[in-house]
Write a structure and sequence with these properties.
Layout (H helix, E strand, L loop, with lengths): L1 H22 L24 E18 L8 E18 L2 E23 L5 E22 L2 E19 L5 E17 L4 E17 L2 H4 L5 E18 L2
Antiparallel strand pairs: 1-2, 1-8, 2-3, 3-4, 4-5, 5-6, 6-7, 7-8
Length: about 240
């Protein structure tokens, strides 16, 4: 009799167990909380050759050293506008690059009564920088769409020196140093906008020739500039 009861109840119990097992949902997969590979910040998004435009304002100081006297440093200032070309190479989140630019500039300043012109009248010593270029290395760190960087290299300036009056100037090309830092933000895979600060030092300029420099002929001229500018770049991917 017991065997008959067990044989009858056993299939029923097995059916209930199978039904309960089917209703139990499998546990959710364990999440690592790590971003997908395409979401990991990488400097590779910045790699490539790029062209751009830039513009901003420069301010600084200049000083003349004449045979008998050295002027006080006087303020200079003016606007800049020009073009940019560069290349970036990425290693993990670190970016290495080389950038060059060439800007038209209105930077100028003067100090009054520092010399005597060829007409025998007191005149102001004036320093101008009407063309400015730099060639710099860049090292940056990528935070996905944001790039922060430091930069340094050489500077080129077409520097004009002379007395006012008259308004004729001695123009010469001079080399200097450029260092700075900036931040760049990717607007799209190819377009980016940047804000940048540069310090430039031209310590080897001069004023030569009595027609432009009068009694200040052969004066040594120092010019330093602080450049604050923005830029828009278009990158051509590798």
């Amino acid at each position: 009799m017991k065997r008959i009861v067990v044989a009858s109840v056993l299939p029923f119990l097995l059916g209930l167990c199978q039904a309960d097992a089917a209703e139990v949902a499998p546990p959710p997969p364990i999440s690592s909380n790590l971003p997908a590979n395409d979401e990991v910040p990488t400097a590779g998004k910045w790699a490539g050759i790029y062209l751009g435009i830039n513009g901003g304002y420069g301010f600084g100081s200049s000083q003349w050293s004449l045979a008998a006297v050295t002027t006080n440093a006087f303020n200079t200032g003016g606007f800049l506008l020009g073009g940019t070309i560069g290349v970036n190479y990425a290693v993990s989140q670190v970016l290495f690059g080389l950038e060059g630019d060439l800007d038209w500039s209105t930077l100028n300043g003067s100090v009054g009564g520092c010399a005597v012109n060829t007409g025998g009248a007191a005149a102001a010593c004036e320093t101008k920088n009407n063309l400015l270029g730099t060639v710099r290395a860049r090292v940056g760190y990528s935070l996905d769409r944001t790039l922060v960087y430091v930069t340094g290299g050489g500077a080129f300036g077409s520097i004009q020196t002379g007395l006012n009056p008259p308004t004729s100037f001695n123009t010469a090309a001079h080399l200097g140093l450029a260092v700075g830092a900036g931040v760049e933000f990717a607007l799209s895979p190819n377009w980016s906008a940047k804000a940048e600060y540069l310090f430039l030092d031209f310590n080897n300029a001069s004023c030569s020739g009595t027609a432009a420099c009068g009694s200040a002929a052969s004066a040594a001229v120092v010019l330093t500039e602080n450049i604050i500018r923005g830029g828009l770049n278009y990158k051509f991917s590798w």
